[in-house]
Amino acid sequence: MNATIEKQDLFKEALGNYPTGVTIVTTTDENNIPLGLTVNSFASVSLDPLLVLWSIDHKVSSREAFENGGKFAIHILAGNQSELCKTFASKDVDRFASCNWALSPLELPVIEGAFAVLECETYKTIEAGDHTILIGAVQNIQVDKELNPMLYHRRHFGEIPAEFYS
Fold first, then answer.
1. pTM above 0.85, yes or no
2. Which domains does the chain show, CATH number per domain?
């Protein structure tokens, strides 16, 4: 086996076993058509100012809209939104037809039912290998404290187990 492919396989194995949260990131294109995709490469960056980051693969068809749009909304999914997560990870489907959503006062598509939504203005973009890292300055935050966030681990989605909260 090629050493590079072997390293990539080990990398996928290691990070695929690292539990993460799951998000859907949304924006609009130049014609105000909503765009969104499932993302698990999300992290906090700074408290002052409030900054978060996520990354987008260079092969994603909506990449330019996210990179050049100047703003995006990050939805930290609730544990009961696995079907929505799968829909926004699928190709050639009307992703927004499968959910309730509305444009926010910042003119971003916001999906109902998420654990949290962070509306961001693009702070910086950084080219990194086959992805672009987008850093967002958080402008607005909504949190539904009645919900629990989704967890992704070993290719499975689900709610964080109750024993984590006791």
1. yes
2. 22-161 (2.30.110.10)
